[in-house]
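About this split. The held-out portion is used to measure sequence recovery: a designer receives only the structure tokens and must propose an amino acid at every position. Recovery is the fraction of positions where the proposal matches the reference. Here is one held-out target exactly as it appears in the evaluation file.
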């Protein structure tokens, strides 16, 4: 395989469109960011035009939601409804005459970790991205499973909280950034005694997961208990994933990895209590490596490593 050339990786979220030139080593050469508008196709084309060069070997797109990676059509993306039903793959391959790959954002991030991140050492691993929601991806025998892998939507509580998907009691409803913040706000509204009341100049609706972690470090009980509770549910989810896939590793990425000491530590404890001991005893649970670049590098890796990944 020639190691020359770059791929353009696009990470399309509800708010921002991030685009980068990515090399085969996973290095980001140039990157841009803009807000997504209603005219998503125009946004995408303008961003690609800014970064495309003669050395571009293809364009990869990661997008939150359910994507048909074969046809390239976004089937469902609640945060980005203007992209639903659009055949991005045909539009872009007609315009640029280059290979175009599109997949779910967490599947793309998983592929990025496999080739240039924490997954390089493992043939079999499960990845969870802990952000606003919880995304997932699975690598078996070195290749990304070509499945939706919506791991944030495994049920961890039978009659649990309503999720944004049709189900209730999803992992995402308990352990995502959105869930942690909404738990804290619920408790504060009920009058819980916590320093978080004074956070964000007293506007509790501006609390972020990072605030919750910082207050937990200062010893705030509500903040700490909320993170531990989220960690417990994360551990319940991880135990099921370990029992199903018997991976060598569980790689955890996304903004919430900043709260590792409390959240993931609790998850590891819970997972160890629940999974088959023979399956979990050698599983490494470790953070992702691509951090801020995970989205764009992951998207580019859909193109850069597509032949190996099949
Ligand atoms: C949701 C779901 C997944 C996505 C995950 C992480 C949508 C729009 N998204 O579970 O497809 O992978 O969130 O997305 O249905 P993030 O944007 O929260 O990182
Ligand atoms: Zn769900």
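Reference sequence for scoring:
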């Amino acid at each position: 395989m020639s190691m020359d050339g770059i791929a353009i990786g696009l990470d399309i979220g509800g708010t921002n469109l991030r685009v980068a030139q990515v090399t085969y080593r996973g290095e980001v050469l140039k990157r841009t960011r803009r807000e997504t508008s209603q005219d998503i196709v125009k946004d995408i084309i303008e961003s690609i035009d800014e970064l495309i060069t003669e050395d571009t070997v293809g364009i990869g797109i990661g997008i939150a939601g359910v994507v048909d990676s074969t046809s390239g059509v976004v089937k469902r993306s609640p945060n980005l409804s203007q992209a639903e039903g659009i055949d991005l793959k045909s539009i872009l391959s007609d315009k640029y005459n280059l290979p175009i790959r599109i997949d779910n954002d967490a599947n793309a991030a998983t592929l990025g970790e496999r080739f240039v991140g924490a997954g390089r050492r493992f043939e079999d691993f499960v990845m969870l991205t802990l952000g606003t929601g919880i995304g997932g991806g699975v690598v078996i025998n070195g290749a990304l499973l070509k499945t939706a892998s919506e791991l944030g939507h495994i049920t961890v509580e039978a009659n649990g909280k309503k999720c944004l998907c049709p189900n209730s009691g999803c992992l995402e409803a308990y352990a995502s950034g959105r869930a942690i913040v909404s738990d804290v706000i619920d408790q504060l509204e009920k009058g819980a005694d916590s320093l978080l009341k004074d956070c964000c100049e007293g506007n509790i609706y501006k609390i972020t997961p990072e605030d919750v972690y910082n207050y937990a470090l200062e010893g705030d009980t509500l903040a700490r208990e909320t993170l531990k509770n989220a960690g417990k549910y994360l551990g319940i989810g991880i135990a099921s994933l370990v029992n199903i896939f018997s991976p060598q590793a569980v790689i955890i990425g996304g903004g919430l990895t900043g709260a590792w000491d409390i959240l993931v530590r609790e998850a590891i404890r819970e997972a160890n209590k629940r999974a088959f001991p023979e399956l979990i005893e050698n599983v490494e649970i470790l953070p992702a490596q691509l951090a801020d670049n995970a989205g764009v590098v992951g998207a580019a890796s859909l193109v850069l490593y597509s032949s190996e990944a099949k």
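Annotator remark: Residues 153, 163, 165, 167, 170, 172 surround zinc ion (ligand 2) (CB under 6 Å).
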